Amino acid sequence: MNTLLHRTISVLIVASAVFAVAACDAAPPAAAGKPPATAHAGHATQVVHVHKDANCGCCNGWIAHMRAAGFTVVAHDSTDMAAVKQRLGIPLSQASCHTAEVGGYVLEGHVPAADVQRLLREKPAARGLVLPGMPIGSPGMESADGRREAFTVDLLGKDGSLRPYARHP
User: pTM for the complete prediction?
Assistant: First the structure.
């Protein structure tokens, strides 16, 4: 890859990560009084390693969602999320604020725990799950007024291909 193209890609990845972190700071607060997701003991031994910016509140909301679903979560604060995403093969177009690893898979963004549980149960030949951006109403992005955006979690193939995995109305 030529140097100019490599630098351009690096700048785009960094810009995407900066945008995602800035959006985290503006994330709506979690809905008050909303009960946590039901825990699933079968996944209690699954350790989810979350790479995130130290100042991102919505990432912490997603971590709480995963813990409530029975996952053990270890958070790793990073000052270079672009490098984490690049190392794990997250396409720039699929970037969100945090990137996680569990059971040999990558998770990008606010993927619901139920989708992660399904992934671990079915074990498809794939790199992982991605939910680009930060849809309102996704785990960690709950709105105080209950507002939700429809979103689709995609399966990221080993070859970088994407296909719908779970739709959330």
Answer: 0.77
